[in-house]
Every structure is written in structure tokens, then in C-alpha cells.
Design brief:
Chains A, B: Keywords: Aminoacyl-tRNA synthetase, ATP-binding, Cytoplasm, Ligase, Nucleotide-binding, Protein biosynthesis. Chains A, B: InterPro entries: aa-tRNA-synt_IIb, aa-tRNA-synth_II, aa-tRNA-synth_II/BPL/LPL, Anticodon-bd, Anticodon-bd_dom_sf, Pro-tRNA-ligase_IIa, Pro-tRNA-synth_IIa_bac-type, Pro-tRNA-Synthase_IIa_type1. Chains A, B: Its EC number is 6.1.1.15. The structure is a homodimer. The first copy, chain A, is of the alpha+beta class and about 575 residues long. Chain A folds into three domains: about 5-235 and about 400-455, BirA Bifunctional Protein, domain 2 (2-Layer Sandwich), CATH 3.30.930.10; about 255-380, YbaK protein, CATH 3.90.960.10; about 470-565, Anticodon-binding domain (Rossmann fold, 3-Layer(aba) Sandwich), CATH 3.40.50.800. Chain A is about 25% helix and about 30% strand. Chain A contains 15 helices and 31 strands. In chain A, the strands form eight sheets. In chain A, strands 3, 7, 8, 9, 10, 11, 12, 21 and 24 form a nine-stranded mixed sheet that branches. A five-stranded mixed sheet of chain A has the order 16-14-15-17-20. A five-stranded mixed sheet of chain A has the order 28-27-29-30-31, with helices on both faces. In chain A, α1 packs across α12. The first copy, chain A, is globular and about 95 Å long. Chain A starts with 20 loop residues before the first helix and ends with a helix. Chains A and B meet through β1, β2, α2, β3 and β4 of A and β1, β2, α2, β3 and β4 of B.
Chain lengths: ~575, ~575
């Protein structure tokens, strides 16, 4: 394509609101433009890259045995009421009325629509398992859209759904999708981890998130420095075993700690480390008040608490409730002498401590020489804390490290949540009605594009992996006013184009500096510059990623380009 | 693909609400399913066909020099207020609020968004002309969605826009698009006409609609039986010249016509033909009352009236206004002795009449022996009637015939309407600011799919053109319980698949009758049936369109299929 005829508005400066590299570079290089907060248009360069990612996704979905379909963005409210999500999805779901005052949702996801389609179409076990997918814009009214394509309100997504006869069959579909997802992100050139994630309230069992490692990611991953174990930090169990203290138990004492509120202040005041104090936090677990006790240097993981109680809702108790129950506020809590209607649970680490400090449930006082078991009773010792860097990996191999990740994919065993609510059943081989078992599988296609840029850029612009770039070759004529340069560049462009190589040709009458800067921004893998030595039939070839450059005879260019890409 | 694993829910009966063939067959054959009134999902077979049409559109757009981009469906109201269409577009535009109560439109079309993008990106004549397009779901809240994909509320559209320096340059872009559209619809195998259309209120100049000829079309086309002239019926000028009557003028007489209200009743009562009466209709043209007079057998074309007056609004006068002006109601109107504040205009045909009848502006009375010119004055004789079958074609070649058409494409010279309202300017080669000149070009992609079915079906199902069909070959194993049939069919499927031929394989354990009926419904061009002679390695090949069938050795199948498609 000739650049002079294309809509590629490059910018010299970063947009004011663009905090991260992918946002800055995609806007500056003319790939995307914001239409409204969190809503973007993909300009021709952006559309091409998006299509390359789409094509990879499509190929891997087809290979996994999923069939493409296309559902509507307009979804009748009735379907969301059937599943129960019309009320629970909240204000992220964009809603509207048609001219007859019928309520619709704009597709944020398509579980309801596909479940209704399949329940009306499939009656027999003979048609199961079924896997379908679509690639389509989704709408979610994010409270705080930001980071360009990473957190938008309209974005391109691949969503897939499996319908299975049984949980065993779901496991198979899930594994197929898991492999397909690994292939997709590998082919996109991404450094990623498949991470054990929280299945939330959907009643699902397994779920993994595919996380691209990146400093700008909003999630923290705990991964093994040795194996491929990785989990969202809140999901990683602590498998560490603790040594019992060999200290002799001393006598329990109450001591004044005037004006010392935080764990750190109390520890400093009493002259010991954080790990020699107990952290006590009051929760309300469904209707039960629970005091959770951990070692002072540990953080309570409320998802573990929720799972321990198999609870629906876990929240911090209010300070008012706490005062009523214990006669004191948050700064002075401790497990000694708590009333019977408060359950005490403690992290494993607590069990092995001796002669530690805790709040005395009295403003300005702490106990010292507290010994668990002797001085307070617990309902249970269990795993209640967040994993930390250096902890042993839960799979027994190596130690935990932390990294930040951008979630680009999510595979999820939905189980029977939707099928039950929406009555999706089939007849088994005995003619008996059974509930379908479902899985759902998403890839953020436009977000993946941004994640690629986060991993592929340098100080001058984007450095696309070769099979993701919008074009393979960028031809520049340095000074098209010089006849010999223009002729040679025109000729090269035609030759490359006619051999099926994807070429962008900068034929603009702009200064060489502008052309080089734009070219670096775009990030096309190979640049061929037609300049001063055009008269001799010699051009310059430069690799965008490595910066390596060389001079070439014009006649050798096609072979060089072909070979270069066949090696990639 | 194996049919047993695909979502292709066929139906034996037509859906109750499906009035036309494309709607009936696409639902019955499992290509589409309704989600809400006018809102459809494309199931896997439908998605494949849609993609084939998309690909043809994409190729022709690229060839025409347009670049693909993708704008958002969410469009801020501010842009529509700038263009003025927020108020004028009416209730077809779907509107919603985000969580911060900001107003948005759901993209019904993208003139506003693209104009805003281009005005912010392009400053110089050097970057013009520019042509861009996208293929994307559009939203229009039709008052009465019907006919399946023909009139939906969410539908797939290709929309393209050109930005030009001048009207001459716009003409070139328009011609390029016109040719591309002709190519698209030819490649889709459609019998269509490019039809001169009404440019409406957009201030545009030329506009053509691409109409697929079909009895179920909602528009009537007037076309020449000899040349390629075609126009929407209201746009075709009448170029007929009329002979003067050679009758001697007789004396004007008023005669009683009690209880005769319609033209036909009066003509019968007075014993003459419709063509010997004058039809007189009162209009309000902007603020002026106008009596339009045509020959009794002709129909008034109000678009011609509007154009004659260069008016903004043309509407029928109310009966109340008419009584006030002429002292009588609609049944007795005529041009003799009308008051001065009513202008009389007449169709060319009226001028040459003699001794005809007209209403006497008096309940129950008509004039006979009326002679135009002698008995009433007209402001002008002009072309005011609808063209009729048999009239000479406006291009001077042949005579007019009528046909009904489905609008599948529209090319439109927008001119400066949007660029002026939204301030899209560029600097010309003298450094002077100029307003951009725009064109807009639409193809209803999903509607095109339905139009193809309207032209390609028989009593048993769809009969796709070979390059539009979802698959090239449909392999049926008649009785897969018989090992030899299953083995041969499996083998054929693998062979065809591995040579890159698109195969659907009916591997289901269903009765032969069910399989044949489904196969006919689907409309895949070639069917290969593995049946009784499987043991001898012999299969049956059948062409869907012609019904021609033949037996073939298994070993000859691949060559046969390849040759068949290379000839298509």
C-alpha cells in the first residue's frame, strides 16, 4: 500500500492520558484513535494487526474442533432474567430500550444467548459435545476505563462455549481449549503463564487465566522459579511447614501501649519484630462473626477464609459491630478472652509461635507472652494467608516469585449454572433427561494486541513479532523528488507486492527524518531504504528489532526478504 | 466438518412468521436463528456463507483502493449533534446512556465518526483522496422488522467513505465504488440493476441503489427492455411526447354527477374512459397551495412536484383547507375557476387534451368539454406523473418495464453536508482552507445473503452459487452402521479435506430420507452419497442445482470435484 493514500496519523507527542507504552505507541503510530472514554476505532494499520491476531485465534479454535458462529450484540433482557444475571451483573452491563420500550442488554458476554440457542436446538446426547465460538465486539461499561486497549468499554473478544454430557467430557473440552489458548499466545510471541484463578460465584470448578507477564498488569501472579506452576496470588495455597518455637512459655502479661495503633508501631514500642506479634482481624462470614489471626508479618487472604467456610459473602466487620462484641475498636484486637459468639480461626503459622504479642481488646493495652493453645482457643488452624515471595511452590518444585500480568484469556468450567437456570437439557442414551454441563472460554483479542506491544517495543516505537506486524516490509524512498530514487522505489514496491509480500511504501514527499521516525514507530520487521545509492541499484535493508543493517543489490531484495521470513 | 458435531438445527416446517423464501429456508436449514424481533444469530453454516460474501466485498474494496478500518458501535451523541442528525434521524437510531449518564448512539451508520476521525487526522490535499471501509454490525430500530435478514434491526454492513478535494475527484471515487459494487454483486451470482435513486434531503447529487431483482423486493424499478437504464420508479422522467387532440373544442358544460366520487365512477357515469377525465389533487408545497392536474389514468409523482418547486416539504392539502379554498371536498375538484391563491400545475399530457371532464368544485357536479388553456390557466405544464410500463425509456432506447427489487447496495455523493457541519477542511496546494467533499457507500452484507437465497432456491431448499455455498461438497454415508459404507465415507471425507476441498460430512446415524432432505435444504453444490455400492468402491455424485447425478469410482472423486469447480 502507498502510505500517501492511507489514514495513518502519527503523533510526535504522547497523548496526555496515555500512561502505558502500548497506549502511547498505538496512538502515536496511528493504529488506534479514541472515540469516547474506553472506546476506540482501529485505523488501517491497527485493523491489519487485529486481523492477524484474529486469524491465529480462528485457526486454533478450528483446530480444537470449535465452530464459528456469530450471535447478536442486542440481547433481550428476558434471557438475562432467566439466568439471574440481569440483577447481579451490575452497571457494567449496558442496557437500552427499543422503540417499543422492550429492554435489551448490549452483549458483555454471550452465555445466555448461546444457552438459549443450544437448548432450543439440541435434544440428544448424540449431538454432544458441542464447541462453538465467535469473534465480536463486546460492551462493558467499566467504571474507570484506562490503559488504552487494556481496559476499554467496547473491545474485540473471542468467546467460546462448550456443551457437554458430563463433567468428564467437560474436562476434555477444557483441556482442548487450554491447549488452543497456549498455542494462540505462543504464536503471538507472548511471554505468558496459564494461571490458576478464582472461579468466583459461578459455581464453576477449574478456571485458568492466561496472563501476559508485564509490569503494567493489574494482577499479581505467584509462580514457581523452577516449574510451570502459576496462580493468581490469592489462589496459591501456602504449603510451608512451620517449626515449633523452642522457647519456654512465659507468663501472660498485659502491658500498656499508649497511642500505638498499627502492628508496626506496637512492635517497635515493645521492641520486637513484626513476626512476634499476632494480627487479629474481625470478619463477618455470612452471618457469623469470625476473628482471623495470622502472624504479624502475614496478610489475610479473604478468599481462603471464604473457601474455608464455604461462604457466600465474606466482609470485614464494621468497627461498630466490633466494639459491641469486644468492647474495643480495630487497633487493640486479640484472640484472648473473646466472647463465645465470635469464632477464632488462625493461620497454620500461628500454631507454632510462643511468647508473642496481641491486642488485649482494651484500648491502649496489649498482651505479651501470649501462647496459642494455652491463652486462647481456635476453631481451626488452616491456610489463611497470602503466599509470599520465597515461600515453597505449592507443587513442591522450587520457590515462589511474583510477577504482574495482563489477563488476555480465561478458560472456565461453568458446570451447570446456566443450564440449570435456563433449563438446557438433553436426553441421554437411556432416554433420560439430563442437564447439560458447560464451559466458557474467552480471549481479549484487542487486549492481546496491546499486550504484544507491551512486550515488543523500544524507545523509538513498536517492534512487532514478524507474523503479527501489519506489513512485512516497509519501503522508503528517501527523496522521491529525485527521479532515480522514485523509480527504483516504485519498482521495488511493485516487485515485492507482486510476489505476495505485504509491503507498505512510504512514497510521501516528506523529509527523511520524518520518514525514519514514522517507520520506527510503526515497527514493521524489515525496512528497505532507497537513498543515495539508488543510481547504482543499491538499497539499504534494516531489521527493526535488532537494528542490524546492510546494503543489498536491488536484484537480491526479493530473495533476501523471502529467506528472512522463512527463517522467522 | 462432521455434521454430528455441528450446530445445524434443521426444521421440517416453515416458521410461522416467515413470509418469504429466504427467511423460511435460512431458518429451516439451520443457517440463522431469531434472538429478538429483527435480531438474528448466524449459526455455523450461516457464518460460513456470510464470510464468503464478506471476503468478496473485502477483495473488491481493496482492489478499488479503499483501506479497511474498524470504528466503534458506540458513538457519542455529541458527534450526531454536530452533524445535526441527533434530532433528525428519529427513532430508528438506538440510543443509550452510560453509567455517567453520557448519551450514546449505537452505530446505524458512521458518517459522523469517520468525519471526525478524518478532520482530526488529515490537514493537507496531499493525503486526498482517501477511501476507507469497514465490515461491521449496524443497528437500526426498524418500526416493523420483517422478512428475516431483509429488514432487521441488527445486521452486517459494509460501509465505505471517500474524502475528496473536489466534486471532480468525488466523481472518480464514486465511479470506482460503482464498478466495485457491480463486481461484488456479479461475483455473488446475482441478477441486479444499478438504479438511479432519490438523493433525498442530504443535499447530495448522484446516487444509485443496487437492486437485486425479486418479487419480494419492497421497491419498484423502472427499467428499459433494451438498454441498461434503470431507475427507482419515482425517479424516472417521462420523456413521452403527446399528440394534440384533433377534436373540435365543444362548449363547456356543467353536469350533475350525483354520488359519483372516484375518477372511475365519474367516467363510467358519463360514459367515457379514464383518460378522458382530469385528475385534480390539492397539495401544500411548503406554504403554497397547488392543484396538480394529470390525465385521469395517470398517477401524480410528488417527488417530481417537489423538485419542480425546489421545495422542502410537499404534502397533500387537508380536506378542511381544500373546502376553505374551493368550497368543496376532494371528490369534485377541478382546475376551472380556482381562486388566485391556488396555483395550478399540470402534467405535459394534459396540455394536448380536448373536451375532457373535470370536477366543478361543487359537490355532485362535473364540467364536461373542458379544454385546457381555454377553460383554465396553468402556471406550467411539466413532468408530474409516474412513469408507466410501455412508456419510452428515458435514455431513448426501448420501452419501460417494471420489476421489484431488493436494495443490497447504495452509492451516494454526499457532497459537503457533513464536512460543512463538522468543519472537515484541508489546505489546498495554495495553502488555502477548503471543505472536504465526501461520498458514502453501503452494502448490506447479511441482506445480500438473503437476496442470494431469493434467487437461488427450489421447492426442496437452497441452491447456492458454487462459490457462495458454505461447503463445496456434502458427503453422505447412507447407513453408517454398515462398516463398508462408514469406512468408505470416512476415507472420502479425509481425502477431500486433505486436498483443501471444503467438505461437510453427514456422519449422523439418521435415516437416509432425513439425510437427503437436510442435504437438499442446505444447498451445497455437490453431494456425494456413499450407499449400497460402497463395497465395490462406487459412490453417487449429484449436482444440487441441476439435479444431474452419476455414479463414480471412489478413486475418480477428487479429480471430478476439482474439475467441476474449476469450470464453475
Amino acid at each position: 500500500m502507498k502510505q500517501s493514500q492511507m489514514l495513518i496519523p502519527t503523533l510526535k507527542e504522547n497523548p496526555a492520558d496515555a500512561e502505558i507504552k502500548s497506549h502511547q505507541l498505538l496512538v502515536r503510530a496511528g493504529y488506534i484513535r479514541q472515540i469516547a472514554s474506553g472506546v476506540y476505532s482501529f485505523l488501517p494499520l491497527g485493523r491489519r494487526v487485529l486481523r492477524k491476531v484474529e486469524d491465529i485465534v480462528r485457526e486454533e479454535m478450528d483446530k480444537a474442533g470449535a465452530h464459528e458462529l456469530m450471535m447478536s450484540a442486542l440481547q433481550p433482557a428476558e434471557l438475562w432474567k432467566e439466568s439471574g444475571r440481569w440483577n447481579t451483573y451490575g452497571s457494567e452491563l449496558m442496557r437500552l430500550h427499543d422503540r417499543h420500550e422492550r429492554e435489551f442488554a448490549l452483549g458483555a458476554t454471550h452465555e445466555e444467548v448461546i444457552t438459549s440457542l443450544v437448548r432450543d436446538s439440541i435434544k440428544s446426547y448424540k449431538r454432544l459435545p458441542l464447541m462453538v465460538y465467535q469473534i465480536q465486539n463486546k460492551f462493558r461499561d467499566e467504571k474507570r476505563p484506562r490503559f488504552g486497549l487494556l481496559r476499554g468499554r467496547e473491545f474485540l473478544m473471542k468467546d467460546a462455549y462448550s456443551f457437554n454430557e458430563s463433567f468428564e467430557s467437560l474436562d476434555e473440552s477444557y483441556d482442548q481449549m487450554f491447549r488452543a489458548y497456549s498455542n494462540v499466545f505462543s504464536r503471538c510471541g507472548l511471554d505468558f503463564r496459564a494461571v490458576i484463578a478464582d472461579s468466583g460465584q459461578m459455581g464453576g470448578k477449574d478456571t485458568h487465566e492466561f496472563m501476559v507477564l508485564s509490569e503494567v498488569g493489574e494482577d499479581v501472579i505467584a509462580y514457581s522459579d523452577t516449574s510451570d506452576y502459576a496462580a493468581n496470588i490469592e489462589m496459591a495455597p501456602v504449603v510451608m511447614t512451620y517449626e515449633s518455637s523452642d522457647e519456654t512459655e512465659k507468663e501472660l502479661e498485659k502491658t500498656a501501649t499508649p497511642d500505638q495503633r498499627t502492628m508496626q508501631e506496637v512492635a517497635d514500642y515493645l521492641g520486637h519484630g513484626l513476626a512476634e506479634g499476632l494480627k487479629s482481624i474481625m470478619f463477618k462470614v455470612d452471618e457469623q462473626f469470625v476473628m482471623v489471626v495470622t502472624r504479624g508479618d502475614h496478610e489475610v487472604n479473604d478468599i481462603k477464609l471464604k473457601n474455608f467456610y464455604d461462604a457466600d459473602i465474606v466482609e470485614l466487620a464494621s468497627e461498630e459491630d466490633t466494639r459491641q462484641l469486644l468492647g474495643t475498636g480495630f487497633g487493640s484486637l486479640g484472640p484472648v478472652n473473646v466472647p463465645e459468639d465470635v469464632e477464632v480461626v488462625a493461620d497454620y503459622a500461628v500454631e507454632k509461635l510462643a511468647n508473642v504479642t496481641c491486642g488485649a481488646n482494651e484500648e491502649g493495652y496489649h498482651y505479651v507472652n501470649v501462647n496459642p493453645g494455652r491463652d486462647f482457643k481456635v476453631k481451626a488452624y488452616t491456610d489463611l494467608r497470602f503466599i509470599e515471595e520465597g515461600d515453597p511452590s505449592p507443587d513442591g518444585q522450587g520457590n515462589i516469585k511474583f510477577a504482574r500480568g495482563i489477563e488476555v484469556g480465561h478458560v472456565f468450567k461453568l458446570g451447570t449454572f446456566y443450564a440449570e437456570n435456563m433449563n438446557a437439557t438433553y436426553l441421554d442414551d437411556q432416554g433420560k433427561s439430563q442437564t447439560m454441563v458447560m464451559g466458557s472460554y474467552g480471549i481479549g483479542v484487542s487486549r492481546t494486541l496491546a499486550a504484544i506491544v507491551e512486550q515488543y517495543h523500544d524507545e523509538r516505537g513498536i517492534t512487532w513479532p514478524s507474523h503479527i506486524a501489519p506489513y512485512q516490509v516497509h519501503v522508503l524512498s528517501l527523496n522521491p523528488k529525485k527521479e532515480e530514487q522514485k523509480e527504483l522505489a516504485d519498482e521495488l514496491y511493485e516487485q515485492l507486492q507482486s510476489t505476495g509480500i505485504e509491503v507498505l511504501y512510504d512514497d510521501r514527499k516528506e523529509r527523511a527524518g520524518v520518514k525514519f521516525a514514522d517507520s520506527d514507530l510503526f515497527g514493521i520487521p524489515l525496512r528497505i531504504t532507497v537513498g543515495k545509492r539508488a543510481g547504482e541499484g543499491i538499497v539499504e535493508v534494516k531489521e527493526r528489532q535488532s537494528g542490524k543493517q546492510d546494503e543489498l543489490e536491488q536484484t537480491a531484495v526479493i530473495d533476501f526478504v523471502r529467506q528472512w521470513f522463512s527463517k522467522e
